Amino acid sequence: MQQFVNTALGGITLGAVYAAFALALNLIWRSTRIVNFAQAPMAMITTYVALVLIDEGYSYWVGFAVALLSGLVLGAVVERVVIRPVEGKPDINAIILTLGLFVVLHSAAAIVFGSRFQSFPAPFGLRGIEVGGTSIALTPFGVFTVVAVATVMVLLVLLFRYTDLGLKMRASAFGPEVARLLGVRVGRMLTLGWALAALVGSLSGLLIAGGSLVHPAYMDSVVVYGFVAAVLGGLDSPVGSVVGGVLLGLSLSFVSGYVGSELVPLSALAILMVVLLLRPGGLFSHVAERRV
Q1: Are 244 and 235 in contact (CB under 8 A)?
Q2: Which of 124, 243, 255, 269 could make a disulfide contact with 141, Cβ separation 3.0–4.6 Å?
Q3: Is 253 exposed, middle or buried (0-12, 13-18, 19+ CB in 10 A)?
Q4: Element (DSSP H or E) covering residue 72
Q5: Region class of 218: left (phi > 0), else alpha (psi between -120 and 50), else beta
Q6: pTM of the predicted structure, to 2 decimals
């Protein structure tokens, strides 16, 4: 029974990490209708910015805040310099550019920060919390990760459902020409969407790195699992991204704990195939039914 509980708790924490990255994908999709494959290396860059500050003697929270701010600026710069020139062209052009950016940022990080593994601190303890004299597989940093992801999810739901700014961002993504006719500054909304998505991506990078080792490729596996989590829940739904991340984390944790860790990648692929076959829009998609 204890193994089952610990496996489930480990899966929830792991799922929160996937959900954090899925939320970044969800935000960029809802605000620009583009899948950003460079989200992971962008988060990696801002995590290194935090690590440099921490190594210089600043507190973890100063590095944390500067990393989020760096993500905000980096997202805006990428949109204005890399993505804006292909605005109005087929969406595949922007997606290919993000793949190119993926490679460029990897190389730049290796040149600037080096390719060696470096330890990244965590703001809270990494030892399991004791309940009734027994240590469970839930750490204070894991609790922080779950709370941070839930907070971001709530903020995104509030932004897109209850604010004029969220409505303008969605209008700019779905119908830029109509939005312009209604007085919406589409360019600013797209820049803001990229900036906020990069900020959320930076948060995911910091949560994944906490108490672990970072190197230029440490976010690569998260791209795959984060994308599966976003598709599982639905790219259009922040709640779906979080639920998808937790379900994926639980599934992979039980596979690893009871079947074998070597089957984890295959299990993720199987989940992705099943979702795409049975519910391509994700578990929380809202498909408008039209009578012809």
Answers
A1: no
A2: 124
A3: buried
A4: helix 60-78
A5: alpha
A6: 0.85
Q: Are strands 130-131 and 118-119 parallel, antiparallel or unpaired?
A: unpaired
DSSP 202: H
Distance in angstroms (rounded) separating the CA atoms of residues 202 and 96: 22
pLDDT at site 70: 95
C-alpha of 38 from chain center: 11
How does residue 292 score in pLDDT terms, banded at 50, 70 and 90? very low
Residue of 224, 240, 231 whose CA lies nearest to 280: 231
- Structure-token pair, residue 84: 């804006």
Tokens (6 digits) for 261: 């860790």
**Which of helix, strand or coil describes residue 47?**
helix
Residue 97 has pLDDT above 60, yes or no: yes
Q: Which pLDDT tens digit goes with each residue over 240-284?
A: 888 888 888 898 888 888 888 888 888 888 888 888 888 877 777
Task: Decide: 268 and 255 in contact? Cβ < 8 Å.
Answer: no
